[in-house]
């Protein structure tokens, strides 16, 4: 029998407590907790700001031993690219990302149209080397990657399901409290709005022949009964990270809705910034909505470039995240100054 759905009168705290009580943490939770604590402590001692960048889509499993799941759209480009610009600007980054989605630095060589094997050749001695025309680009990326490794400024935390994501988000936020306003949350992940509570989930693979397997199948149809995921942005802003800067994203497909939905989110959660983007144009334009202000950020001479970047003749590329992240950092500077005064 299923758990009764949350009543519309439930408080945010009750919904949150209910969620974490009924949906257990991921297996690696304790281990990740230690990693996060050590990372935050190190950078706190060094006086470094920390950005928690979330990236990629969360899944909603249909079975406990998961074969099928509902997915959320996101390749992880926004998050992985933004993380690099935070690192370049002196931040340490906790990169909470969908397992196997794009990662900072390796993203340059992991896209299917940018396969790393195409950058290689075998020389006359049989050694694998990087082709001449890619040497400079690869050297630049490698140097930045190695710097992040040497300085231990990048922590990778993977998730798959929405529950794994939320456990990690909450725990990381609590660990980051020690940094006060020196932490920024940059929530680019595409988070599921609906899920199947653990106690209604089928343990094993749903069989097409099973009637009413875990309340999921009716006759020959699979009827999926989803509960709303509590709006965790509220808990984050008010309880888990009350002194940090919070930047959320708003993805829409209808241009007429984007600004009003972004403003509504800002009003509802009272955080610092909503970055609005449309599915089809997200690689070259976004709108930054903060209290009393909206600012469009666009790549110059943009076009529907399938790689999502604006290529210069020199071969270098301008990415919209290189324009977004410095603006977020400027707002973060202001917020920190205001907090200190
Ligand atoms: O990875 P790419 O392919 O580059 O794509 C990037 C992106 C389009 C996914 C990214 O730029 C983006 O817009 N991410 C947010 C998409 C999204 O989940 O929007 P939303 O309207 O569902 O959620 C808005 C905000 O509410 C999010 O910041 C989310 O963290 C938060 N949320 C969502 C669900 C939930 N239950 N609780 C929440 O707090």
CATH names the topology as: Rossmann fold
Q: Return the string of H and E elements.
A: HHEEEHEEEHEHEEEEEHEHEEEEEH
Provide the CATH top-level class. Alpha Beta
Question: How large, in whole angstroms, is the Cα Rg?
Answer: 22 Å
Strand order, sheet with most strands: 7-4-1-8-13-14-15-16
Kindly report the name of the CATH homologous superfamily.
CoaB-like
The chain-level mean pLDDT equals 90
Q: Which range does the strand content fall in?
A: 15-25%
Structural class: alpha/beta
CATH architecture type:
3-Layer(aba) Sandwich
The helix content, as a percent range, equals 25-40%
Contiguous uncertain segments of 5+ residues: 1-9, 311-315
Number of strands: 18
State the gist of this model:
One of its GO terms (biological process) is coenzyme A biosynthetic process. This protein is of the alpha/beta class.
Molecular structure report:
The protein is an alpha/beta fold. The chain is built from 8 helices and 18 strands. The chain has one domain: Rossmann fold (3-Layer(aba) Sandwich), CATH 3.40.50. Strands 7-4-1-8-13-14-15-16 form an 8-stranded mixed β-sheet, sandwiched between helices. Helix 7 links the parallel strand 13 and strand 14. Helix 2 packs parallel to helix 5 and helix 3 crosses helix 8. The protein starts with 11 loop residues before the first helix and ends with a helix. The N terminus is likely disordered. The site of ligand PMT has 20 residues, from helix 3, helix 6 and strand 13.
Question: Features of this protein?
Answer:
single chain, 341 residues, Rossmann fold, eight-stranded mixed sheet, two-stranded antiparallel ribbon, 21% strand, binds ligand PMT, CoaB-like_sf
